[in-house]
Write a structure and sequence with these properties.
Length: 121
């Protein structure tokens, strides 16, 4: 008869995450932190002494965007960063300014700055 045993949580975690890089594992961990949050929920992050404030904030923001929302961080000092889960804002699209029809008529085309191209001989 074969022997069957249940794996511990640590063994299961290692089995599931075999072959993943450190960056992927960290992203999965931050995704796990936010899995119970919904839009309108508040939370706080308590930093460890070796954590960098900006790194933790950017990782949480990336995890939130993967889940379809955004995070609003409140300014504080110390090792605790309070935040609120907010709706994801649509990214600002960069569009050139509209050109009025009056200025485009009869105006010479603008040249690009820099050295002119060599003319073929």
């Amino acid at each position: 008869m074969p022997k069957v045993r249940k794996l511990t949580k640590e063994e299961a975690f290692l089995l599931e995450n075999r072959g993943k890089g450190m960056r992927t594992l960290i992203a999965a961990e931050y995704d796990h932190f936010l899995e119970d949050y919904e839009i309108g929920d508040y939370g706080e992050v308590e930093l460890e002494p070796d954590d960098k404030r900006t790194t933790v904030r950017s990782r949480l923001r990336a995890a939130a965007k993967r889940r379809g929302f955004d995070i609003l961080f409140f300014r504080t000092r110390g090792s605790i960063i309070p935040f609120k889960i907010v709706q994801l804002r649509p990214e600002m699209e960069l569009h050139p300014a509209p050109v009025s029809s009056n200025s485009a008529e009869g105006a010479p085309q603008r040249r690009r700055p820099g050295r002119p191209r060599k003319q073929p001989a």
